[in-house]
Design brief:
mainly alpha
Length: 285
Amino acid sequence: MGYLRLLRLHHWVKNLFVLLPVPFALASGVQFDPASLWIGLLAFSLLNSGVYALNDAIDKERDQQHPKKKFRPVAAGAVERNSALVFSFFLVVTALILLARGGVFQGVFFVGVSYLVLNIVYSCWGRSIPVLDIFFLASFFFLRILLGCFLVGADPSSLLLAGGTSIALLLALGKRNSELQLLVTEKHRASLSWYTKRGIFWAIQVQVVISAGIYTYYCISSELFVADRWWWSLPFVYLGLFFYQRRLLVLGDSRSPVDMLLGSPLMQSLILLWAATVLFGIGLV
């Protein structure tokens, strides 16, 4: 049971970002192998779990200072640190072999290695540096979008990458906000000494406006949308951003973005409605 918890399967929901380029690639006429897409998605999910297991082993003492993370298997003593490292190594090697398999588009293996290296740098150094730690977190989502583009063989759209990165920055700010709400000590996260609730409050509001603006401009300017359907997905993006901002800043929700999404039927419904209206807007349904 402890090894299953090390996988953090519920965090695989973050890999929805990998699928973000798929409908737009289809609308632009890109042909791709669905098997390669799903194998790549599975491989990257295993790589995520390998990184999580590695972080749990590295962060044992730090996690024991956290009100929620102290229940993670390594911090709680359910899995030995050395066993977690071996488990992590197995997952990472398996994932990289799958990403390097023949027939997968060039660049996929590079994204996997970059994700692994950046996570190691983040765990060992980057997370202690204010502001830089947020950009590290956002870069992990950026790499997910880039992976999706490579898996379907589509040229990355600058606006798609910019919009996805903007949302990623918002999620990273939300994560730091949740730690401030939980009054996490500097022993767990050294960079938290630099952040204030007021500063995060304004940063989140600004990032919400930027994210909404980039997506609106993308819908208006993209040739992929049918002329009279470009605006259909906008209300659900605006509602999602507003709801997320309200949960963080008004209700003081201390859950991580992943836990917030998985515990919110409303947020899940908005994402499904957004996906449906995007498919309608670009003429795939």
